[in-house]
Design goal:
Elements lengths: L1 H10 L6 H44 L1 H14 L2
Helix pairs in contact: 1-2, 2-3
Pfam families: EcsC
Protein name: EcsC family protein
Organism: Marinobacterium aestuariivivens
Length: 78
């Protein structure tokens, strides 16, 4: 990781000492972890929205018609 930061800095003509590169590793790791968390949160929020839309449709129209409509949609896609 330290070599990678050094190579990136060399490409942009930024002098980086090994100590500074080593200190940057936790920050880079934290930023990567935050990005992954955001992606997971977005995915599961979208899945939850879809789930509750289906639940609402099932309460209004019943499970059978909603399931038939779903199967009709998935058979024509792809």
């Amino acid at each position: 990781m330290i070599r990678l930061i050094g190579q990136i800095a060399a490409r942009f003509s930024i002098p980086v000492t090994e100590k500074a590169a080593a200190q940057a590793v936790p920050v880079v790791g934290a930023a990567g972890g935050a990005i992954i968390n955001i992606l997971f949160i977005d995915h599961f929020q979208d899945a939850a929205k879809g789930h509750f839309v289906i639940r609402r449709l099932e309460r209004i129209y019943g499970q059978g018609p909603v399931l038939e409509a779903y199967r009709a949609c998935t058979c024509t896609v792809g």
